[in-house]
Each structure stands twice: as C-alpha cells, then as structure tokens.
Amino acid sequence: MKQLDLQVVQQARNWLEQGHAVWLCTVLSTFGSAPRAPGAMLVALSSGDSCGSLSGGCVEEDFLERVQNAGFDTCNQIVRYGEGGLAPTRALPCGGVLDVLVEYLQPGEVVQRLLGQVEQALGGGELLIREVPLGEGVSRCRPASMSEAKIQRSAEQVSIRIGAVLRVVLAGWSPVAEFCAGFAVALGYEVIVCDPRAEAIAEVKVPGVQALEILPARFIAEQGAHSATAILALTHDPRLDDPTLIEAVRTEAFYIGAMGSQRTSAKRLERLARVGGLSPEDMARIHAPIGLQLGSKAPAEIALATLADVLRVANGIERGAL
C-alpha cells in the first residue's frame, strides 16, 4: 500500500493536469492530542473533493466547508485549529491544536515539476527540502539531509523535509530485533529483516514485517539503501554484523547502528578499520553502542532505546537537545 502522502501528491498532480486549482495542506505542528504528525498532507478541490488527512475527522470537515465557501485567501498561509485558532472553531473536541500550511496551487508547468520532485522524494528518491514562501510566491525544492529539522518556520517561509516512509533494515533476527520490528511497525515504518538462517527467518512472525532469507550485507549491496533508511545490526555475531556495516556505510542510510558494549564496539570499529578498510569518516557514521544510553538491559529496553535514537535522528534532533 502506498503511503498516504504519496497518494495525496499524485492526486494533486492528476487534478492539476485536468485543469483544476487545488488546495494543498501540510500539518506543521501539533500540541496536545493530535492523531497525525507534522508533515501529514491533504489536497482538496473547491468542490470539497479531497484526498489525505490532517486530523482524522473534525479538522477536515471544517476545512473543506471553508474551502467550498471561499473562506481562505488564494495564497500560501498558516492557519491554526484549536485554542486561539480559526473562528468560530476555537477548540477541537480532542483538546489539541494544529498549525496547518495551506497552499493554493494553480495548473502550470512549474507546479507540476515541483510536485513531480516531491512525488519522487516520497517514493524513495532524493531527500528534499520544500521551501514555501508565505503570501504570494512559488515554492522550490533543494537537496536535504536527515540532520535538518523536518519543519522549519520563519516570518517569510516554511521549510518542509520531504522523503520516503522510513525504512528499517534489521540485519539478523534476535530478541532485540523482534522488539525493534514491533516498535518500528507501530511507528509506521517499512521493516525488512534479513538473515541467511532459514530457522531464524521462520521465527519472524511480526505482522507487517518482510522477512528475507539472505545475508544482510548481500541485500544491502544489491538493493542499496535510500536516505530514509536505518540499518540496525543486532546479533552480536561479527559474521553478520561486520559485512553489514561495511556495506551500510557505502549507502545513503541516515542511521547505521550496531549493538554491543563500549568495549565490544571499540573492538568492532578497530576490526572494521583494519579488515574492512573503513575510514574515520565511515566509522563516524556508525552508532555504536547503538541507541540512546538509557541503562537498557532487557531486549525490549534495548529496542526501545534503539528506535528512540532512530526517531531522534529522523526528526533532526541533536542528542544534546534531549
């Protein structure tokens, strides 16, 4: 199933090709209870037809009613739903607050080219920042990195990081990997487990997880890894972990991690430099020990610390800001 935001962009392009102007909306921030995260998208016609979601119900209904009644200026603007927001809807039933970027896009080659870039990024292509000027003006895209914040705002423009749904590649199946898989699926990530052992792959029973009987390093070498990929080596087995890490640093993966103590990690890095020929720059990309340092001991705790660190990096949060 295609991610919802990809469907939104594709629907927007289809409507524009048919000669319709569209309203493209992006959640910028949420406070309190809010079911969709920053970056979530919705596109609508002035007729009220729509694709996507901002909140799962009440916000969409109000927004579409306003669109049909010409309740918005035809320019790029930020609107607020919830306390202190649009009148008369000053409070949402859930008690949350949403800030939403609303763009009015008219048919044209420039807009189609821009949305084509966004579609490619959401499909796993180049990671982009979409810069949207507030008021009049045309947005543009530029290359981005996962270290940049997902949403940035100023008085003049909004910057939104655009990329594929996060993918987690688990190199080897283990108790920690099992919990990582479950947490990652719950977060909406694409999860792939690679393990050459048939008996290990047979144990993968987490719904929504793709299990492949293949050496992780071979999978990475053949398939690569786009810039929204996290590669996690969680077996403690150098025969699996070391080749995985050697291949991982050759990709655009935004997070590469290996489980182990400080002592084990130091030995691994020395070995990777000596045997694998990894440079200091390569090794600096490897999170080892993996995850946030929460004093984790049990597999579930280690998995929680690992996915929390993946989420931190994905959201462009410096470790020192925690």
Automatic annotation (TrEMBL):
Entry-linked Pfam families: XdhC_C, XdhC_CoxI
Domain of life where this protein originates: Bacteria
InterPro entries xrefs: MoCofactor_Util/Proc (IPR052698), XdhC_CoxI (IPR003777), XdhC_Rossmann_dom (IPR027051)
Domain XdhC- CoxI residue range list: 15-82
Ranges where the XdhC Rossmann domain occurs: 168-310
Cited PANTHER family: ALDEHYDE OXIDOREDUCTASE MOLYBDENUM COFACTOR ASSEMBLY PROTEIN, MOLYBDENUM COFACTOR INSERTION CHAPERONE PAOD
The protein's name in its UniProt record: XshC-Cox1-family protein
